[in-house]
Task: structure prediction
Amino acid sequence: MDLRARMKEKGPGLVKTGHDFNDNRALSGDYISAEELWACTTCNACARECPVNINHPTLIVDMRRYLVMEQNSAPGGLNTMFSNIENNGAPWQYSPEDRLLWAENIEMKVG
Result:
C-alpha cells in the first residue's frame, strides 16, 4: 500500500518534468520504515494471496538491499556477520586457522 501511495504521489511529477523531478521524499524512510522491511519473514504468503499477482517479497528484498548497499543500514546481527565475512572470510568470528579446533579429538573410522 505504501508503494502505491508513493507511486500516486510522485508519478504525476515525473510525467510532467521527467527524470529530474525531486520532491525530497524517499520511499525508504518517509513511507516504509526500516523496521517494517526487516520485520518481513519473506514467507511469500502475501504474494500467494495477492489478487493482482504482485510479488511483495521481491520488492521488500530489493529495498533491504538498497538499505544495506547504499545507506549502510542493517540490523546489528547482520552488521556483525558482514564484519566477520570481511575480516575472517566467513560469518563466524573465528579465524580460518581456528575453525576446525572443535574436531581435534574426534576419532573417525575409515572404511
